[in-house]
Design brief:
- By secondary structure, the chain is an all-beta fold.
- The protein has one domain.
- 3% of the residues lie in helices and 37% in strands.
- It is built from 1 helix and 10 strands, in the order ββββαββββββ.
- The strands form 3 sheets. Strands 2-1-10-6 form a 4-stranded mixed beta sheet, with no helix packed on it. A 4-stranded antiparallel beta sheet has the order 4-3-5-7. Strands 8-9 form a two-stranded antiparallel ribbon.
- The protein is elongated.
- It starts with a strand and ends in a 10-residue tail after the last strand.
- The relative contact order is 0.24.
- It comes from Oryza meyeriana var. granulata.
- Keywords: Signal.
- This is Pollen Ole e 1 allergen and extensin family protein.
Length: 134
């Protein structure tokens, strides 16, 4: 999920009071067994701030160290909100947020679907009123 962080919690990882950020753009990059980029896709958060990317049919052994959690990461790209467009590194949204296995699986025709998640990630307002008045 992608949020707009409240000015109250600027310079922290807190998302108290944060609001979903529909239309936020992200990238998901995965590396192969030789650490080369094997896939990179963009995602756009829906009206609730959630995003989803499907990588299609891929063997687990194709990923770096045989594990998508070690091979893939998500980064914030852009915010559609001019008042909340500064990326934060909450959950490593700038450096590259790792994936975690959500334990959700179901069988397809000859393969399994596996759901991974990351985040939550956030942008913040570039300009916030000072916390202290002088």
């Amino acid at each position: 999920m992608v949020y707009c962080q409240s000015c109250v919690h600027r310079d922290s990882w807190s998302l108290d009071g944060a609001k979903p950020l529909p239309g936020a753009k992200l990238s998901i990059t995965c590396r192969d067994a030789n650490k080369r980029v094997m896939g990179c896709q963009k995602a756009i958060a829906d009206e609730s701030g959630y995003f989803l990317v499907e990588f299609g049919e891929t063997k687990v052994s194709d990923f770096y160290m045989g594990d998508p959690r070690k091979a893939c990461y998500v980064r914030l790209l852009a915010s559609p909100d001019i008042k909340c467009n500064e990326p934060t590194n909450i959950n490593f949204g700038i450096e590259g947020a790792p994936l975690r296995d959500e334990g959700k699986r179901w069988h397809g025709e000859g393969y399994d679907y596996v759901v991974y998640a990351t985040g939550p990630l956030a942008f913040r307002p570039a300009i916030c009123m000072p916390k202290h008045h002088y």
